[in-house]
Amino acid sequence: MYGRDPWGGSLEIAADSGTDDDRSRNLNDIDRAALSKPLDETQQSWLLGPHEQKKKKYVDLGCVVVSKKIFVWTVGIILGAGLIAGFIALLVNTLPHHHPRPPPPDNYTLALRKALMFFNAQRSGKLPKHNNVSWRGNSCLEDGKSDPSSISKNLVGGYYDAGDAIKFNFPQSFAMTMLSWSVIEYSAKYEAAGELNHIKDIIKWGTDYLLKTFNSSADTIDRIVMQVGNGDTSGGPSPNDHYCWMRPEDIDYDRPVTECHSCSDLAAEMAAALASASIVFKDNKAYSEKLVHGAKTLFKFGRDQRGAFWGGQDYGVLSWDNKLAGAQVLLTRMRLFLSPGYPYEEALKTFHNQTSIYMCSFLPFFTSFNRTKGGLIQLNHGRPQPLQYVVNAAFLATLFSDYMDAADTPGWYCGPNFYSTDILRTFAETQIDYVLGKNPRKMSYLVGFGSHYPKQVHHRGASIPKNKVKYNCKGGWKWRDSSKPNPNTIVGAMVAGPDRHDGFHDKRTNYNYTEPTIAGNAGLVAALVALSGGKSTLIDKNTMFSAVPPMFPIPPPPPAAWKP
């Protein structure tokens, strides 16, 4: 029988005429003939039964063929390594950890943490649960309500200025400006000290109150609150914040509200406080914009209603009522980091030169200011309460030094002599060290820092015990005149300081030595954070001026085409 071969030719199919045995013998003959040729491994697998196949020496992985021995060893090594790694991880997670301890905080960081606590003790109004001053409570919750002429019926909150219960907008605004300025420059240092949230909370408590003291939602205003409370005793004995000696929580006398209609410098300082705080709270867009709007309103009022609210006799010495030195340092910052060039360069260069001269006056080689035998610079020329000026100067000196370091400038000239930036930091350190106890009396003028500090701080709340007894206006006089230490320690309060002979009288009745203020403590906080951690953390060069538009002048249009 023939069939068609699809590859060409004929295909013969034999008829089925033999038995099975015959066919088997014929196939065996054919198989032996075929096996005379070498067969590959695949062909052999076709012929051998399942128990007769040769044992493979290779493993086909699809993309590559490897030796079975190598494959087994590789898998074993991987599994073994995995078991060892898992065992090590188990040990690491179960055994106790021994991380190297971070270095202990320096004295400036320790003092910073205490200095911030003073603001908690000065809070007015309804206190938050986390205030952490056990002897303080809610106070003066009727501020603004008893004065029918006040622009605001809710003046609750803010900070008491000093050892009394008066709320002055000018020094309070200065304090918030200084604190915000220090956060803008040194937020990383605050965070390293674990105090960034704390100081932001302190600032917001102050700015929330300042927003209440004028119509902050308006674009134009004609007056602002400048004071709540009264300390004038010239009219004879009358219950007020200076005549009475009472815990703020127990005050029951009237607290008048004082407004001003022509006080440009107060309005400008309030504007500075809100504007600087708007940068601190830049991540809170709604609140930051609210602060900016209030600052613009106040600045417009200050420009439209010019008048001198207060004055100072110390030219160029930074204080709550004289901002010239601080403004010059900020303008110098602008020149160093923005370099705006023409037409601003000439004016900025003048401010830079004035800042340099001011910094020269801090050096011991010059005689602009006297020093006590203990080394304290007399920026207020020997008058009482010197420390508030000293700490402000220490802050500016450290800051200017850091500005020059950030601008890769090794120093500056005082006349023909060149001085390195380190000498400014050394000046700041010696002054702050004096405040913290390196002085002839070995007295720390920061309450709660060290073991020897003032015990009779001029402060009503700290000097009267919290014993559920309400002492009236004159009833508290016995605590004022007591020779015993205050029953409550007002941690972090920097007192007014020593006299020009390094002398100090720890007497509650002598406020020129023992009274603290929020303006003074703000400067101390700024100086401490600037010095804390040494030079390990640089200033923030970019945030302060990040919203400043380009200051280069618009180029003039090209000249018209020439026509013959």
Automatic annotation (TrEMBL):
Q: Which Gene3D superfamilies match?
A: 1.50.10.10
Give a yes or no for keyword Hydrolase in this entry.
yes
Quickly give the catalysed reaction.
Endohydrolysis of (1->4)-beta-D-glucosidic linkages in cellulose, lichenin and cereal beta-D-glucans
Q: Which InterPro entries does the entry mention?
A: 6-hairpin_glycosidase_sf, 6hp_glycosidase-like_sf, Glyco_hydro_9, Glyco_hydro_9_Asp/Glu_AS, Glyco_hydro_9_His_AS
- Residue stretches making up the Glycoside hydrolase family domain: 108-308, 313-528
Family indicated by similarity: Belongs to the glycosyl hydrolase 9 (cellulase E) family.
What protein am I looking at?
A: Endoglucanase
